[in-house]
Amino acid sequence: MIKIKAKKCKGVGKAIGYGCGKLTKYRKYGLGKSCCYASWLYSSENGKIELNKALNKVQKPRKELEALKKATKERKGLTTLLNSVKNICHKYIRERDKGKPCISCGTQWSSSFQAGHFYKSELFSTIRFNEHNINGQCEQCNLRKEGNESEYRVNLPLRIGNEKFEKLNHLASLEKKTDHKWDREKLKEIRKYYQEKIKKL
User: Fold this and answer.
1) Which residues pair with 114 in a beta bridge?
2) What is the pTM (predicted TM-score) of this model?
């Protein structure tokens, strides 16, 4: 076992000019850990820099964990809000199109009709909540025929008009040029919009 030799507390390197001269076995920058090292950390410029480095090193894992928790919480909150907007938007579509036949196959309306997208919501996020892109559709077309797009394409301009249909196509064409990310305020705005539309029905 190596014996640690006691030496005088006298600063070297970053701590030069500090020290009390006491004999000490445990030193850092030549300063005794039991006498002058702590004082140097808190009172000198170099010591404060060294202290901040040590604190940041200790706190880094905690800060990273807190940032991860915050990001996870925000992501969950955004997902919850997205689902809330989806529910109110689809509710409006079903109420608006009550009594109208399926947009694709023309089957007579029933209470099981769903809000079917012409441009798929998972592929065209910017027009996910566009009311002209969503219409009352039977379960057969929406689920089993994956939207029955060919018939949807024929009937959509007849229902919303050619001008709105062309505008919808234009918005869809811009999708690839848009790095779209939802923000909370925009989602709240859309939710409020559909809440007001439902009241007016």
Assistant:
1) 137
2) 0.65
